[in-house]
Amino acid sequence: MAGGKKKKEVKKETGLGLSFKKDENFGEWYSEVVVHGEMIEYYDISGCYILRPWSMGIWEIMQVFFDAEIKKMKIKNCYFPLFVSSSVLEKEKDHIEGFAPEVAWVTKSGKSDLEIPIAIRPTSETVMYPYFSKWIRGHRDLPLKLNQWCNVVRWEFSNPTPFIRSREFLWQEGHTAFATKEEADEEVLQVLELYRRIYEEFLAIPVIKGKKSEMEKFAGGLYTTSVEVNKGHGRGVQGATSHCLGQNFAKMFEINFENEKGEKGMVWQNSWAYSTRTIGVMVMVHGDDKGLVLPPKVASVQVVVVPVPYKDADTQGILDACTATVETLSEAGIRAESDLRDNYSPGWKYSQWEMKGVPLRIEIGPKDLANNQVRCVRRDNGSKSDIKRDNLVEQVKTLLDNIQQSLLDAAKQKRDASVQVVKTWDEFKDALAQKKMILAPWCDEEEVEKDVKERTRGEMGAAKSLCSPLEQPELPEGTICFASGKPAKKWTYWGRSY
Amino acid sequence: MAGGKKKKEVKKETGLGLSFKKDENFGEWYSEVVVHGEMIEYYDISGCYILRPWSMGIWEIMQVFFDAEIKKMKIKNCYFPLFVSSSVLEKEKDHIEGFAPEVAWVTKSGKSDLEIPIAIRPTSETVMYPYFSKWIRGHRDLPLKLNQWCNVVRWEFSNPTPFIRSREFLWQEGHTAFATKEEADEEVLQVLELYRRIYEEFLAIPVIKGKKSEMEKFAGGLYTTSVEVNKGHGRGVQGATSHCLGQNFAKMFEINFENEKGEKGMVWQNSWAYSTRTIGVMVMVHGDDKGLVLPPKVASVQVVVVPVPYKDADTQGILDACTATVETLSEAGIRAESDLRDNYSPGWKYSQWEMKGVPLRIEIGPKDLANNQVRCVRRDNGSKSDIKRDNLVEQVKTLLDNIQQSLLDAAKQKRDASVQVVKTWDEFKDALAQKKMILAPWCDEEEVEKDVKERTRGEMGAAKSLCSPLEQPELPEGTICFASGKPAKKWTYWGRSY
User: Fold this and answer.
1) If you measure CA to CA, which chain A residue comes closest to B56?
2) Which residues on chain A are in Cβ contact (under 8 Å) with B107?
3) Disulfide-capable partner of A55 in A25, A39, B108, B250 (CB 3.0 to 4.6 Å)?
4) What SS3 state is found at B346?
5) Torsion sign, CA atoms A204, A206, A211, A216
6) Pairwise CA distance, residues B461 & B467, whole Å
7) How far apart are CA B281 and CA B287, in angstroms?
8) Strand B437-442 to A49-51 pairing
C-alpha cells in the first residue's frame, strides 16, 4: 500500500525483528521466534515454559478435532492421578528403566517428610493398569478404551527446548485393552492415521507413517508405530507414537478375562499419545526469518485487517471499512481481527503480525476504499492481490485454503529433496555427512543398529533408525543390508534425532 | 413390564445396591455411591482418586459451557507450569500462609537431589503474576484476561473425600488484570453469575451468591464472592469462588502500567475458579438410597433403553424397537443408549442404571411393541408413563426438561426448609443444634466471628460465617447483631462447613 509505505514515522520500532536467521543459527532462531511470536514465555524454572494464548489456541483446535474423532471410536475420557507410588511405578522393569532417570519425586508436604516418596507420572501405563486389572473381569468388559488429556513430567537435563523437550508437557494419552491382538493391531493404525491427519491436515506437515526398530520402540511394549517428521538437515522428529503393548503389561499387572467359553485369557493393550511437541514441530517446519508462519487451520487469528490511513484521506471511512470487513468474515466463521491501534504505523503492525505468523493480512487504504476492494497479503509467500469487497468471504476462504495447501506442498518438496536413497555403507556415510535423511535397505537386526550408532558417533550425534515406512518401496530379491551385508528385510529411514 | 417382573431368574444379582442410607450414614453412603455409580475409583495413594468416564463426562459438559462463555468475555486460555520455585511462592505472605501446610515439594529427580526444592502449584497466583508484571507495560496491555484448565495439588490431611477434598483436583483458574477497580468489580460478578448458572442450570442445585467475611476470604485478596450450597444438616459447601485481589499482588509483584496521561498506575486483579468439587456437590444434593441421580443436562447418558423380552414374545422385534428408539433419540441430539446384554435380567439392569443415575429409563416389552409405545420411568421420582413412539422425541425432551426442573425445585424446597432466620444468640444456638443453616443480622466484625467460632466449638465442628448474600433482606434500622449486640450491618448466613 502506497499510504503505508510512505508514512514511516514509526513511534515504536523497537523490539521487532529477529536477530538470528533460520538457516544460519537454527537453535537461536527457534528460541527467539517462539518468544517474539508470543507462543512461549521462558519460566524461572529451567526446562519449564509458559504456553501463551497464541500457542494454546493451536493446541485447543487440534484437541477439538482429535477428541471428537476418538469419541467416534467409542474411546472415553477419564482422569487418573498425577502421582504414582514407587512400588507400582517399578512393576514393569523394562518400562521403568526407560523412564527412571527422568522421574520427579515428591518427598515433602508442607514441612513434613512423606512416609514414602511419590513419583510424578512420566506417562500413565503403570498408573492405570492396576485398575484395568480390577475393572476387567469378563469378555463383556472388553474392549476397555480410555483416554486422558493431562500434563506429564520428565525431568530431562539435556538441552531443554520449548515444546520439543520440556520437563512438563501437555498431551493426550490413550490406553486401551482388547480381547484379541487383531483388534489391538487395528486400533494402533487407526490412531496413527489420526496423528497423520493432525500433522498433514492441520499443521500442514508431511509425515512418514512407520514402525520403530527394536532399539527405538517404547520401553516395555511389543511394537511402536510413529509419524516421523523430517525437520531438515538429516534430523527426524518423532511426531507422535501409537504403541501396541502386546501382553507384557497385562502379565505384570494381571489383566485377565474370561472369554465366551469360560477360558481365561490375557488382554492385548495399546497406548498412544501426541503432545504439545506438535506445536514446536510446526514452528520449525514453517517458520522463516520474519517469524512464525501459522497454517490457517490452526491459527487463532486467520486474517488480520490493518487500516492504512493517509493524511487527507477519509480515516473514519477506512476504520469503518476495517470493522465491517472483520464482521463479515467473522459471521462466515473465519477467525478475523482488526488492528486499529493508533500508536503504531501500518508498517510496524505488518511486522508484528508477520512475526506472529497470521496467514493472511488485509490492508485497507484510501484507494481500496474508493475501489470497494481490499488488498490481501499472504504470510507464506508474500504475494499480494486485490479483491472486491462484494466477494470477500468466498475469496478469503479460497486464499486460506490455498495457503494451507501451499504450506503442505512446500514442506513436502523440501522433505523429498532432503531424502537420499542409499545401498552401501559408503553412500550412507556420504549422505549422513551431507545431512540427508537416509532411506536404506536393512537387515532389521538390533546388533547392527548398535553398530551403526557406534560407527557414526561424533559431535553431531550418532545416526539411528527413524522408522521403517509402512508403505515399503519394492525390495528386490537379493538386496543386502547397507550396514551388515546380510540380506535386507525392509527399507528403513535413518538420520539423527532432534 | 409384566414380563420383566415375572422373569426374575437373575444370573448375577451380586454387588448391586447400597449398604448405607443417605439419611443414616451420609459419609459412608457418599463413598459408596461414588464408587458403585462408577464416578470414582479409590486410588492407592490416599486422597487421590480416579475420575472415571462417568464423572469426566459431567466435567466435560460443564467445561464446554464455561469455556465458551469466558471466550465471549475475551478471556483467553493459556498454560503455566505445574512447578513454582519457593522464592516466588513465598512472595505474598498472607497468601502463602494460607497454603503453606498443604504444599507438595519435589526434591529429587531420578536419583539426584534437586539444588532447591520445587513446589507443585496449590493455585497459580504466584506462578503467573511475575509474568503479568513483564507483559503489562502500558494501558493498552490492559485488560489482561487469562484462564487455564489444569490440575492443582493441596496435600490435605484431614478427611479426604472424593471430589470434595482431594489432594489433586481439576479446575479452571481465571486470572485477570484491569486498569480500574470498577472493571475488576464488574468481572467478579459476571463470573459469579456463570458459576450460579453452572450450579442452577446444569447441576440443578440452588445457590446463594454472597460475599465472604474477612476471616473467610481468599488469603491475600481484597474480597471474595462465592456461590454457596446448602447441603442440608446445617452444612454449607463453598461451590465456587470469584475473588477481587485488589492491588495487593500487584504491589508484591510490581504489576504497574502507564496510563493515557503517562502516569504510573498499579493494576487491579481478580482470580476465580471452580473445580471438580462441583460434581461431588451434585452427588450429595441429588443422590438417594438407590444411587446417583444425574440431572439430564450433565448426564453422559440421558436415556437408557432396556428391552423386556417375554418367553413367547417377539424378542427380535423388541430388540429392534430398542435399537430404533436409540437411533431416533440420538438423531435428535438426545444422549441415549440401549442395554441389550443378554446375561442380565431387566430388573438387574434397572438397578444398575438407577445406581448410575440415568435420568430416564425406557422399557420396551411385548405390550409396548403391540401398542407402538414405550414405557418411561423417571429416575428422580420413579413416576411411569407410556408414550407413543410416533411422538417419541418431543415427549422425551419434555420429560428430560421436567426432570431437570423438578430436581432444582426439590433441592430449593429442601434448602428453604432448612434455613432458619434468627436474631439472638439463643435462637442461633438452638438453630445450630437443630442443624439448620442460619441467616442472622451481623455486625461484620472479625473479632465477633472469632468469638462465635470459639463459643460453638464441639465435635460437630465450630460454626462459621458462610456468606453475606448479595441480595440482602431488609435490615430495619436499629437491628442488632445476634452475637455481639452491636448494630448489625448485614444479614449473613452461618453454619458448619462440610
Assistant:
1) A78
2) 105-108
3) A39
4) helix
5) negative
6) 18
7) 10
8) unpaired
- Amino acid B78 reads C
Average pLDDT estimate for A138-155: 96
CB contact under 8 A, B53 and A78: yes
Say how many CB pairs under 8 Å bridge A and B: 141
Q: Is the pLDDT of residue A313 over 90?
A: no
**Minimal CA–CA distance to A305: which of A369, A370, A371?**
A369
Residues B275 and B153: their CA atoms lie apart, in Å, by: 12
Mutate to test the interface with B, among A41, A61, A74, A82 (most CBs of B within 10 A): A82
Element at A328 (helix H, strand E):
helix A315-331
Give the model confidence (pLDDT) of A176-226 as tens digits: 999 999 999 999 999 999 999 999 999 999 999 999 999 999 988 999 999
* pLDDT number for residue B498: 76
Nearest CA in chain B to A53: B78
Query: For the segment B432-471, what is each residue's pLDDT rounded down to a tens digit?
Result: 999 999 999 999 999 999 999 999 998 788 999 999 999 9
Q: Which residues of chain B lie closer than 8 angstroms to A108, CB-CB?
A: 104-105, 107, 117
Which of A41, A56, A79 is facing B51, going by the closest CB pair? A79
Quote the pTM value: 0.95
CA distances, A142 to each of A136, A252, A256, B360 (Å): 7, 19, 11, 26
Residue from A49, A56, A139 to probe the interface with B (highest B Cβ count within 10 Å): A56
Q: What is the rounded average pLDDT of the residues B291-317? A: 94
Stretch B257-267: mean pLDDT, rounded? 94
Q: Which residue has the cell 482429535?
A: A66
Is the predicted ipTM greater than 0.90, yes or no? Answer: yes
Three-class SS of residue B254? coil
Looking at residues A114-133, what average pLDDT do you find? 96
Summarised one tens digit per residue, pLDDT across range B323-345 is: 999 999 999 999 999 999 988 99
Confirm if A436 and A421 have CB atoms less than 8 A apart.
no
User: How far B467 CA lies from chain A's nearest CA (Å)?
Assistant: 29
Q: Which residues of A touch B84 (CB under 8 A)?
A: 45
Task: Indicate the residue of A45, A78, A85 with minimum beta-carbon distance to B56.
Answer: A78
Contact check, Cβ <8 Å, B79/A44: no
Contacts of B53 in chain A (CB under 8 A): 76-78, 146
pLDDT at res. B8 = 38
Can you give the pLDDT at residue A14?
47
Decide if A240 contacts A276 (C-beta within 8 A). no
| Torsional sign, CA A9, A14, A19, A23 | negative
Which residue, among A62, A79, A151, A171, would best test binding to B if mutated, counting the most B CBs under 10 Å from its CB?
A: A79
Q: Grid cell 488469603 — which residue?
A: B219
HSE-CB for A154 with a 13 A CA cutoff: 20
CA-based nearest distance B160→chain A, Å: 14
Is the Cβ–Cβ distance between A414 and A396 less than 8 Å?
no
- Residue type at B343? N
Which of A169, A166, A161, A203 lies closest to A31 in space, CA to CA? A161
pLDDT at position B15 is 55
Q: What are phi and psi of B330, to 5 degrees?
A: -60, -40
The single residue listed with the C-alpha cell 415375572 is: B6
User: pLDDT tens, A250-266?
Assistant: 999 999 999 989 999 99
B154-178 as b/e, with b when 16 or more CB fall inside 10 Å?
bbeeeeebbbbbbbbbbbbbbbbbb
The whole-number average pLDDT for the span B251-257 is 96
How far is the C-alpha of B332 from the C-alpha of B336, rounded, in Å? 10
What is the grid cell recorded at B489?
450491618
CB atoms within 10 A of CB B424: 15
Average pLDDT of the segment spanning A461-465: 92
Under an 8 A CB cutoff, do A101 and B110 touch? yes
Contact A292, A356 (CB under 8 A): yes
